[in-house]
Amino acid sequence: MKRLQQSLILWLVLLPLSAFAAQIQGVRLWTAPDHTRVVFDVDQAIEHRVFSLSGPERLVIDLSKAHAGRKLDTAQMHDRHISGMRYAERKDGTLRVVLDLKQPVNPKSFLLRPGGGYGHRLVIDLYEKQAGGRPKVAKSARNIRKWRDVVVAVDAGHGGEDPGAQGRVRHTKEKVVTLQIARRLKRLIDARPGMRAVLTRKGDYYVGLRKRMQLARRDKADLFISIHADAFRDQRARGASVFVLSRHGASSEAARWLAARENAADLVGGVSLDDKDDMLASVLLDLSQSAAQEASLAAAQKVYRNLGRLGKVHARRIQRAAFVVLKSPDIPSMLIETGFISNPTEEANLSNPAYQERLARAIADGVERYFREAPPPGTLLAKLERDRRPQEHVIARGETLSVIAQRYRVSLARLRQVNRIRNDRRIRVGQVLRIPRT
Ligand SMILES: [Zn+2]
Q1: Cα 181 to ligand 1 centroid, rounded to whole Å
Q2: Which has the least CB within 10 A, 134, 200, 382, 429?
């Protein structure tokens, strides 16, 4: 009897999972600027095959031992890259899905485990084929202008298949709130002279963490700001926090916890976090990052102070943690947790347009202050700051040339030169100095 039981169990285990046909329960589509993501909801991990056909362009997705659980909604399945979707069950038990394409694509497919409120998923990313060879026409008039704008990359956290955290009362999704705040922040920054913002995400689609940094670099950003609104297991947690990158551990348990959460978002991209060239990357980072880190901290402090004026801030100081999205070796970067969506009061605040605007304004003010104090060379802000300096200075008691030079941010040599001073001891109280503007 015992023996029979054992063999029965063995038989059950050996029975391949796929003997039970998988059910396709739904399909949806996310459009990003450079690709389209098609997601199938399935009730189990599934085997699949993807191939392209041309004349006309199509992408065929064969799902082994699968059938449509109910009629799939194909009416929505069209965008910039896809013109339609059809599907049929074949005799061999395969469900064949055909996507009609507007242009040839490079497909990439992978399975996602349950998470973020979804079950098993099959993801097909359709990337635009590069129209190789011909370089893009150089940017027009903008480059000719003598003084460039300071560029701020505003990064709305999460998106698409990755909803981020979710509120408990109204089920507000983090990805929605972050995009709304990011858009407001962009508008406020664009309205200020000498400043311009670019968004790393413009709609409801997923962008990988490293891709976000690449986009910022492509736009030659001077500052990278990632906007989040996270949940914490303690529902009472509230207030905004500002983070900068740490390569040597997190500054608090909450910081560590949040970093783990945010970094996990990359799993939705179908990539593993343990990057193979991480070793090389870390060496390069250590070499070049200290300058960017100092700038990150300076910028973060300005923003943090303003957020503090807005209301309660969560931590007493800038926090440090190993957020992947902040690992940009050359761009000063910060991550702002605008509030805890897990706190019912803050959930209501974060989805309130007036509150979002106040938040965005506090951030924009902090950013502007940072750039006014340390404008990157060649920018309009650098020129404005220089023009604003007085041209003359009357020497007061106790002042030395080097103190005066520091105050106007000119070199001591240049100050001596324009005032024809050869001996510093020959300056006197009440003497009028010319302050050079370059
Ligand atoms: Zn987040």
Answers
A1: 13
A2: 134
Looking at CATH, the fold of the domain delimited by 389-434 is given as: Membrane-bound Lytic Murein Transglycosylase D; Chain A (3.10.350)
Residues of the chain with CATH 2.60.40.3500: 15-128
The rounded radius of gyration (Å) of the Cα atoms in the chain is: 28
What is residue 269's predicted lDDT score, i.e. its pLDDT?
59
Instruction: Give the architecture-level CATH label for domain 144-269+284-373.
Output: 3-Layer(aba) Sandwich (3.40)
Calculate how far, in angstroms, residue 190's C-alpha sits from the geometric centre of ligand 1.
24
Q: pLDDT by residue (tens digit) across 308-354?
A: 888 777 777 788 877 877 877 678 899 999 999 999 999 999 999 99
Give the long-range contacts of residues 278-287, CB within 8 A, separation 24 or more: 281/327, 282/247, 284/329, 285/247, 285/327, 285/329, 286/247, 287/329
| Span from the CA of 218 to the centroid of ligand 1 (angstroms) | 23
Q: How far is the CA of 157 from the centre of ligand 1 (A)?
A: 6
Ligand 1 mean position to 269 CA, how many Å? 15
Where does CATH 3.40.630.40 sit in the chain?
144-269+284-373
Distance from the alpha carbon of residue 63 to the mean position of ligand 1, in angstroms: 33
CA dist 222 and 150 (Å) reads 6
Reported pTM: 0.70
Distance 282 CA to ligand 1 centre (A): 24
CATH class of 15-128: mainly beta
- 243-285 pLDDT, tens digit per residue, is 888 766 666 666 777 777 777 766 665 544 344 344 444 444 4
Cis peptide before 56 (omega within 30 of 0): yes
H helical segments located in 311-379: 344-350, 353-373
- Where the chain has pLDDT below 70, the residues are 1-19, 131-145, 247-254, 265-290, 329, 390, 438
